[in-house]
Amino acid sequence: MKRTHFLQLSTLAAVGISLFPSLSFSSELQQTFTRSQLIGKGNPDIVGDSYTSKMHKEAKAAFSKMKIAAAEAGIQIEVVSAYRSFQRQKEIFEGKYNRFTNQGLTPVQAIEKIIEYSTIPGTSRHHWGTDIDIIDGSATPRPASVLQPEHFHGKGPFCKLKEWLDEHANNFGFYEVYTDNANRKGFKYEPWHFSYAPVSKPMLQEYKKLDIKQIMLEEKIKGAEHFSDAFIKKYRIENILDINPKLL
Questions:
Q1: What pTM value is reported for the model?
Q2: Which domains occur in the chain, in start order?
Q3: Residue-wise pLDDT tens digits, 29-41
């Protein structure tokens, strides 16, 4: 192709995209995700060096901007939990499973109790590096157990943070995941849990294509033999997909 003809085509393409933005290809459309990325077993896009700093690189950049903006309002956003690997989630899940069954609960009862707040390994949104649990680090007095809904309402220490997030978080791409919608099922209300939508939405679309039950069996998660088809279907509908509609 001659240089002049190439330049003409390039110019026309640039003009077309500027006039019709929908013709441009967004990173979401171009992005593909591996099974390992989706279940927390390795992701080259995760940056950071601790469980409170590790995030998807795009989420981390957006979070940094949100943190600066919040600081200007006198709020010190502190990350309690960010990226969580499959192995770490497995340790959390199986630790609770052992404790509850040792207390006398049946395996099914133990699993049902665990998933009130905790996810089954391989199904956590924290595996993606897009989701964060946050509090106001400058609030006093600091509760012994920070992730409790009552701390974010009424006269709780994190009320100011919650009010600020309700007004500004969306501007940075972050949305509350497990809202207080009375009609929502699955995981209980978590006013501290926010997700970076530009990355988590396409990841969820890819995640929906996975065979969750097969993954749990292959990874030998304790109690997985009690995950019936009916349980998996319910868990998928209620715990994975019954979230803030803006994240679907």
A1: 0.85
A2: 1-25 (no CATH), 31-247 (3.30.1380.10)
A3: 446 899 999 999 9
